[in-house]
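Notes, Module 5: Reading structure tokens.

Key idea: the token line is not a picture. It is a compressed description, and you learn to read it the same way you learned to read a sequence, by spotting repeated patterns. We will look at two proteins. The first is printed below with its tokens.
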Amino acid sequence: MIVTLRRSISVTLVLGAALALVMTASLCFGTIPIDPGEILRALVWNLTGRGESSIRDTIIISIRLPRVLLAALVGGALSVAGSIFQALLRNPLADPYILGVSSGSAVGAVLAMMLGLGAMSLGLPLASFAGALGTVLLVFNVGRMGRRVHTNTLLLAGVIINAFFGAVLMFLISISRHEALHTIVFWLMGDFSFADFAGVTLIFPYVVTGISLAYLLARRLNLLVAGEDEAIQLGVDVERVKKSAYVLGSLITAAAVSVCGLIGFVGLMIPHMVRLVLGPDHRLLIPASCLWGAAFLVICDTLARTILAPIELPVGVITSAFGAPFFIYLLKTRSI
């Protein structure tokens, strides 16, 4: 499909409107149902400070709004990271976790919980982010051969380090105290129950900057997917593009994982869905994946906290249960 500016703007506006609708609906659903009029009044009250607040206003502004915003940010981030890694590795099954970022982030988070830093408002996400960044540097240095970064070597280094940190993670869980075990297991399955505005503020600049820079790489990612030799002939510095794409995808993933734990399928499935519907051009694939992934994760989180209310499920359970059959349906009915 030919990507024109008019088509890009049209698709972005439609998906943006759908995301706004999904986020508004998510604010309405919960243990206490709230109608859209009360949502609007609470938002106006929060922005202007006029009028008296109610318990419902507090539920909307302090509990549901940061959770919805965080789910949208994480969904968009994981989806864009997935599209970057699939282009970088030229492998349609690549996702943000295959390069070991998730396991490194998980090790950092579990260490923080065992040391009691999880009780601090930013202790857990900062420890998780530090673990992810350390893993990024480790994988990059192991996978680099001289000055060149070979995608196959990078992939193999990520798989090996991912397996190593997986073993470290199991060791830490096996020696953790009983009272910390439930929190750790929930975090590993993906969890937004600790969402607050501090988490939103923490990852917002990383996610927005990362996605913006990824969009600037869109044309060069298209050429990289077509083949390294063809890209070099067209004047693309392939090694620089590969390094930039790897660092961008890893940082976006690290920011997302640091605030909510491990959430599978989003980075693998959403880029596939967008590519099947809108085509492989990254100038449209990246923004569409961001908006589509944000809406998808908001829907999954809404189901996670309402489907068995008052019991709350880890959102990773919903993404896996919802994503796997839909992905199989797309594979069976559409060609990749």
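Here is the second protein, with the sequence above and the tokens below, as before.
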Amino acid sequence: MTTPDARGRFGPYGGRFVPETLMSPLEQLEEAWRQARSDPGFLKDLDRYLRTYAGRPTALYRADTLSTRLGGGTRVYLKREDLAHTGAHKINNTLGQALLARRMGKRRVVAETGAGQHGVATATVAALFGLRCTVYMGDEDMRRQALNVYRMRLLGAEVKPVLAGSRTLKEAISEAMRDWVTHVNDTHYILGSVLGAHPYPAMVRDFQSVIGHEARLQILEAEGRMPDCLLACVGGGSNSIGLFHAFLDDRQVRMIGVEAGGTSLDPGCHAARFAGGSLGVLQGTRTFLLQDEAGNILPTHSVSAGLDYAAVGPEHAYLRDQGRVVYTHVSDSEALEAFHALAETEGIIPALESAHAVAYLLREGGDGRLGRLIIVNLSGRGDKDVGHLASLEGEGA
């Protein structure tokens, strides 16, 4: 297991690089989370909502047709976070943070979103608990994820477009942080991934670790042994760390995180931080990010809005240095092929984010090359991407 030090750092990564005005709110949040995670009443409430509202545990499905396609006796299991309420793993974290916000006496929440899944999950829990909700979203992402924008508004959230910069997730996070600084007395910022200043990376990871704890029990029940390999896509990195964390002490289990290789590894054409990034500070944390020699953040690209971000969660950078998790990337075209392949072989339409993990499986997992027993995390369902994909493929949806 990995635990941040007293300064919130995973080795040289993480920490708290924020304006002075945010130091006190972050310290209050850290203390509230420290107390809540040892409070049986809080944990009981969270467990109840996860089971009866979010629909946990999600299924661990044995994908026989996909397994046969890979050959070599490979058995592939899909951890079906797409079956959770709102259609993605994001609901695990938003339920936890909304309960924490209520415990802290906050009456309003703000959030950022790229693919819209975190925004929908935040709007959902805000409606559930009677909290006012504002979600910031890049204008470009609003165009790509119009269905999720409508869903957020149906749930009563105010969706504010962000027109600055590349008009994607990075700018949305900056706007959400500005809002939080301005209204910190009555507002909690529900950050959507294992990013930002301490305690967010560790706190979000803890809320998402339910994925791995369930998968570990389920694979032991189904196969009687640990998997050989875990695969998950990595944007900020919440679904992947949620799956990986429960297996970190099982040294025989390989773990592979798949980033967005975009159209090429030229600057501005991808979001593979470990393939072209360097150490820097972005939005409150020190980690690997895409920047030029002067420290200016480079533009990013991915066919998947949820992976289109310049930095990666600090714990991932630490696990990469430790050699415990290997990070790689696949291209847009490979992800699109995998999107179709899973739909046609298993009748499951994955989120474009998750399709990156499936693409790596299809490229590298044949004839048992990744081991005989593999778990792939399906972080979300692809309904939100169907219109975008149809447009890309000239179907005119």
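Summary for the second protein:
- Residues 68 and 194 are 35 Å apart (CA to CA).
- DSSP finds 16 helices and 14 strands in the chain.
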